[in-house]
Specification:
The complex is a heterotrimer of chains A (480), B (40) and C (150).
Chain A lengths: L10 H23 L5 H6 L6 H12 L2 H23 L2 H17 L6 H9 L1 H34 L3 H49 L2 H11 L9 H20 L1 H9 L2 H15 L2 H10 L1 H4 L9 H50 L5 H23 L6 H6 L2 H5 L2 H9 L5 H21 L2 H22 L19
Helix pairs in contact in A: 1-8, 1-15, 3-8, 3-12, 3-15, 4-10, 4-13, 4-15, 5-10, 5-12, 6-7, 7-8, 7-15, 7-16, 7-20, 8-13, 8-15, 8-16, 10-21, 11-15, 13-15, 15-16, 19-20, 19-21, 20-21
Chain B lengths: L4 H31 L5
Chain C lengths: L8 H22 L10 E4 L4 E4 L9 E6 L8 E6 L3 E4 L5 E9 L8 E5 L4 H24 L7
Parallel strand pairs in C: 1-7
Antiparallel strand pairs in C: 2-5, 3-4, 3-6, 6-7
Classes of the chains: A mainly alpha (480), B mainly alpha (40), C alpha+beta (150).
Chain lengths: 480, 40, 150
């Protein structure tokens, strides 16, 4: 362990908090999960989720362990622009709001983002899309699992393998029992806890060190962090923005929420949720930037958030931090598990393998897939390879390349399959090339840009004439 | 060219303020939904 | 060091030799120079670096100094404590020298860090491109569909 200075919380305290929260989530998951009587219930929480729960789940799901670990890291590495760059991910949610309204209207019986791509662009595009989406979902899942283990270890000294396993196990358990009802219900509780926790920590730091001191210390010791012309962070701003937009636009995590919410709630939930999320990385970033003034040695940049928070508030504060992290992890892990499993169950199992599957069979398949995902994630997380940021940013160009195919697919009749496929491929390839040749901070940007140009070109050159009603798939006897 | 101190300070204070307000917003929204019986 | 035991001349020589060897080993161990882990010539394009060093026994207090000259004039102690790593960021363009010692012993070999930020031109170009893509996406999403759906 490189960090020798102090133990943040004792393993015993860590275990008590984990146990307490785990029992809470699993209990609530089971209780709310009993509402899930049908596949619509299990996968989409009855399709009538209201504004409060809708907003909370949008916000909580977007507050991932990345927000609590990576946002402070961005601030510490890239300064004020870094903080702002991270916040731009809120635009993913905000820009999705009009799409949410449109999706709900066009596909009242829809289940997944895959459904949309299949109905809109046909099978080849669908397969390509599924590859991108499942790859991204899986990478996100692994990064969450790893983060859980790392955090438990750094804050409470719990061995990485054990911490990671416990978190995955708990999330799989309550997602399995309760489906999206459990996910959305627990998200509400988790979102409130996260917000309260961040305020407590932020205010504590603000009171401990005078802001003038923080600013002065940064000017002396880390001047580039205050620089408005720090090249690396300027590049990060739009790259991160487009990565965020790509993530939200394509992922079934967000589409399933649209299908789960009532018609009225959808658009507003994304707007309000996005606005609530927006200041969170700024608060987290501030906590990181004050580390120098407080006199805390940072041994790894992704630990700056927990290190500062725990140091500033002592034992009680460390417990608050631990709780916030566990909540942010759980609120995203459960969503990922549920939505990725839905995508695989609906799009692969039902549409490709067994179209005549009954509700009971689908439910069983869905459960097995949740378990399977959890298990494979566990295996991959066990050796603890790589750093979180590297792993996730690799998916950037892939998801950014889906932005224009999806948005134009929803709004332009002339958008066509060839454009969508070409856009996704061109965007992904050029983005990845830039990732390796120029740097990670350019990849999503280039992916989105290339995809946009290709989609617009193909729409102009080979205009389609799509009929919107085709998106409303009749469930009874349709063969995809 | 440095970000001015006041700018940064305001940005952070506003953020902390917004987050505090958000908690209240979420709770109020839930109460409203509860009253109108449209929680889920 | 006096010897309370009577010994023959030969064994007292031998013993003295052994004792000298042992104490010189102790001296060496006590003044052990800690070593950085990884390369000693580092390059950063964004002004941050993570320095790590080898643990040298328990209860060691390390001191890390930073200077802009290889002779370490105007050196600044940027860390003092038991940790085995530190993260440094926000450095402007330039060459920085680091050295490390343990328990106020001898200094390690200096580590050189060259910070050369990415070209601002490249950054602004990419940002400009990003802004365009972003704004066009906003326009697409807000404008929506040309005709209302039935």
């Amino acid at each position: 362990m490189e960090h020798q200075s102090y133990n943040i919380i004792s393993p015993e305290h860590g275990w008590i908090i984990i146990a307490g929260l785990s029992v809470l989530w699993i209990g609530l998951g089971y209780y709310w999960g009993r509402r899930a009587k049908s596949m619509d219930g299990y996968m989409l929480a009855g399709r009538r989720v209201g504004l409060a729960l809708g907003t909370a789940t949008v916000m909580a799901t977007w507050v991932t362990s990345n927000t609590t670990m990576l946002a402070p890291q961005f601030a510490l590495e890239l300064g004020i622009w870094g903080m702002i760059a991270y916040s731009t991910a809120a635009l993913g949610l905000l820009l999705f709001a009009p799409l949410a309204a449109r999706i709900r209207r066009l596909m009242p019986r829809g289940y997944t983002s895959g459904d949309f791509i299949r109905l809109r662009y046909g099978k080849p595009a669908w397969v390509l899309f599924l590859l991108i989406s499942i790859f991204y979902g899986f990478i996100w899942l692994i990064s969450m699992g790893m983060a859980g283990g790392i955090l438990m270890n750094a804050i409470a000294g719990i061995p990485y393998e054990i911490g990671m396993s416990v978190i995955l196990f708990v999330c799989v358990a309550y997602t399995l029992f309760g489906g999206l009802y459990a996910v959305i219900g627990t998200d509400y509780v988790q979102s409130v806890l996260i917000l309260i926790g961040i305020v407590i920590i932020g205010v504590a730091v603000f009171q401990l060190v005078d802001f003038g001191t923080v600013y002065a210390d940064l000017s002396t010791d880390k001047p580039m962090l205050l620089n408005a012309l720090l090249p690396a962070s300027i590049m990060a701003v739009f790259n991160n923005l487009l990565f965020g937009v790509g993530e939200v636009f394509h992922s079934n995590v967000w589409w399933s929420r649209v299908f789960a919410m009532s018609q009225k709630a959808g658009r507003r939930a994304y707007l309000i949720g996005g606005l609530i999320w927006l200041p969170v990385p700024v608060a987290a970033g501030f906590i990181a930037l004050s580390s120098g003034s407080i006199g805390i040695n940072i041994t790894r940049p992704d630990m700056v958030g927990p290190l500062v928070a725990a140091n500033v508030l002592g034992q009680a504060g460390a417990i608050v931090v631990f709780m916030v992290f566990f909540c942010s992890l759980a609120s995203s892990l459960d969503s990922l598990l549920a939505s990725t499993s839905d995508l695989i169950t609906q799009d692969i199992y039902k549409k490709m393998i067994k179209p005549q599957a009954s509700e009971a069979q689908l439910r069983k398949a869905s459960s097995r897939i949740v378990l399977g995902l959890g298990f494979v994630a566990w295996i991959v997380c066990l050796p603890r390879i790589g750093t979180l940021a590297d792993v996730l940013f690799f998916a950037g160009p892939l998801v950014a390349s889906t932005i224009w195919p999806i948005a134009t697919g929803l709004f332009w009749r002339k958008a066509n399959a060839r454009g969508a496929i070409a856009g996704m491929i061109a965007g992904s390839v050029t983005g990845l090339v830039f990732y390796f040749v120029v740097g990670w901070y350019s990849a999503s940007l280039i992916g989105a840009a290339t995809s946009m140009i290709v989609v617009v070109l193909f729409t102009y050159l080979f205009p389609g004439t799509f009929e919107w009603h085709k998106l409303d798939e009749k469930t009874a006897a349709s063969n995809a | 060219m440095q970000f001015p101190e006041l700018f940064v300070e305001i940005m952070i204070m506003v953020s902390l303020g917004l987050i505090s307000v958000s908690v209240i917003v979420l709770i109020v929204l839930l109460i409203v939904d509860f009253v109108k019986q449209r929680v889920w | 060091m006096t010897f309370p035991y009577r010994t023959t001349t030969f064994s007292s020589w031998y013993l003295s030799l052994v004792l000298i060897l042992i104490s010189s080993l102790n001296l060496v161990a006590g003044d052990q120079r800690p070593e950085f882990r990884g390369k000693y010539e580092l390059m950063s394009r964004d002004g941050h670096v993570r320095l790590r060093w080898q643990a040298v026994g328990p209860n060691a207090i390390y001191e890390l100094q930073q200077s802009d000259t290889p002779a370490f004039d105007n050196a600044e102690t940027i860390y003092r404590g038991p940790d085995l790593a530190t993260f440094i960021s926000g450095l402007p363009d330039g060459v920085y020298y680091y050295r490390l010692r343990m328990n106020d012993g001898d200094w390690s070999e200096p580590l050189t860090l060259t910070v050369k930020h990415y070209s601002l031109q490249l950054a602004l170009t990419l940002a400009g491109l990003g802004a365009i893509v972003f704004l066009l996406t906003v326009a697409l999403v807000l404008k929506g569909t040309p005709k209302a759906i039935r």
